[in-house]
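Re: weekly structure request thread

Next one in the queue (496 aa):
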Amino acid sequence: MAALQQLEILVHGNYPPALLDAVAETHPRCRVSVFPLCSFSSEKEDLSRREWVQSPVLHAVQIICYENHHQGIYTEHPDRVLRDLLYQSPHIKRLALQISSKYTTSSCHAYARWLQARPREREEVDLDPTRRARLEVLSLPLITKITASQFLAWSRVTDLGCLTAWTAGAVEDVSLMTTIADLKPFRALERLTLALYPPENSSAWLPAVEAMFDALPPLGYLCLLGTYDPAMLPVAVLDRHGATLAELKLHRPKPQYMEYESFRLANKGGQISPIFPADVIARMAARCPSLHTLRLCVQRYRGHPVETAAYEALGLFPALRTLHLVLNCLPVVQGDGRPFPPRELSAYELETLPSPWQGVHKWKIRDCAINSAFDEPLAVAIFMRIQTARRPRGPLRLLRLHPLAGQWSQYEAPTGITPYARLGGGEIHYDMAGQWEVECEADGRLRADNRRKPRGKGERLMRHADVDIFQSIWPSTGSKIWPLEWQSWPLSVRDT
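Done, posted below.
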């Protein structure tokens, strides 16, 4: 057999040491990745006491823990189990922790008991620097808060200067950021993922963000999520890192097999990340000369010039080749309960939907339906508005549209639109939105494809209220069977 270069063991539970011993003997250069499940329910779940963790071929470990958010979530970050593992196996180069949902049980209470039974002396005494691990990749769950004390605990067990990629978790206070700014521990960091959740009325927050990013080496990849003010990004982050960034993610798709993390992120503040307006996008573009891949969220306004201004600003990135554009299709509601941009509402639009739709104004559901209606002409028009904003035409080659209509309650709070109130309980919005991909081929022609098929099978009977709203936008023959005929609203070039 040819020498193995990489082996992934995709089973939960204990790994027989003989298996890894055999790999070490026959394929000593092989890098083994394991995915253990840790429930903390008994001493046998203590990963750091298992024989296999000391195998010399062990290269990467991704630990999976369960929690049931209905019964409670981890109140103390479960990264402790990773550090305990690293004490025993400092040769490991990649460590990751994944928190998944399990509705029948969870390990939160067992973890609390596990912590009480574990001696804490090792965290209180600095290791000899020569004995510290040299991790290259460390990934902590974004749905859990990381503190300054945790960060210092990690600095005692691994040389943070060797990290090239760090998924940090949620940052909710300034102490962690000031600690990083003071210590400047990173030398090789190239990829950073974190979520920022600023406290209310903290004058120290923005300076701390800027100081932390100033203390990092120039990044090539940044994924920044949370509830921060998007206007802080150009100055506090991109003034330092914009020149070297090749990829910037300011929203996150649902990772395969990790839907729970997306659910928890979206429900922590009502959003996964901010919505970016045109003026902020333009300032970002001026600071990112080499950025070739971008993912961010913009607001739909029924094709109004406020919306198209965001597309034109995206065309100002000089090197952008791939754009994942997340579009919030829920309407923007002003403090007086009327839409933004302001417009006169008809008597019909001011009517409310009856119970059990909870009295939502019809204009909100109509606007959401209009914003969710994507077809090939609209997808191509958005691409062209981005592409032609820069003269000569920019290098954009691939545009993927990701419409949102309140998935996981994102951006839902100001609207009052519950899932039940959306057309078809959201299914009709989903069908109309699709997931369009527009690609500029080598000969300059545009190819547009809808990569997502409608949910459900065949025709479906629509609710009376759905038909009423739908026909107020796209008059039809009065049928109550979905799908009905519709088309997207065009982009405007003037205020209407």
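The CA atoms of residues 142 and 169 lie 4 Å apart. The radius of gyration is 25 Å.
Next request, please.
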